[in-house]
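Box 3.1 A note on notation
Throughout this textbook, protein chains are presented in two layers. The first layer is the amino acid sequence; the second is a token string describing backbone geometry. Keep the layers aligned when reading.
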Amino acid sequence: MPLKDLPPDAQPREKLLARGPTALADAELLAILLRTGIVGKGVLQMAQELLDPPSIDPKTGNVAGGFGGIAGLLHTSPADLERIKGLGPAKRAELVAVLELARRALAQQLREREVFDSPDAVKQYLQLHLAAKGHEVFAVLFLDAQNRLVAMEELFRGTLTQASVYPREVVLRALHHHAAAVVLAHNHPSGSVQPSRADEALTLTLKTTLALVDVRVLDHVIVAPGQALSMAEKGLL
């Protein structure tokens, strides 16, 4: 059903303005962003299908269906969105822009206050940056003496081991940013956030190396779509 055919108090935009965003379901909020559906499919139906769990097309073996909720949708790449019929360049650009605004809002929060005043914000920030990537990426959050974010850099990609992550490069970037501390981070495309022995060994190597230049390793966060693990919280640092 087109939105214009719904009663005024049931139309998502009017409902939001009258009752606030918390009164709307996920699909209704997404429908406001999408604005229009396509022939034979209203915008609310389209929004709900985007939020439905993913599936596998039995004929092609390709991923079909939706992205598994708001978190799944926000962790998709622009290329992933191209497979959805009705998501043209304008709609894809709007969804990607919302994701970037979320990243920047969290980055601003981390720059204005101590990182560990808001550990969940750190995890969310890293998830938005790394969780959707189809390959392993190693990143570092460089922090000042008040544990506020100075910069984040993706330094290495590929299978992460002690041999593929160069401590010297991490040290050079920490000195470049005049960092007093760092938070290490990488993603697991497999979906599991459990640290491997290689992850633990790499963390120990970097912690020892950075200590030589008086830079503390506060945490190593492992992220995957929809979840994140802090090695410090698990007592593994």
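The beta strands are 54-56, 63-65, 137-143, 149-157, 181-187, 216-224, 227-230. DSSP finds nine helices and seven strands in the chain.
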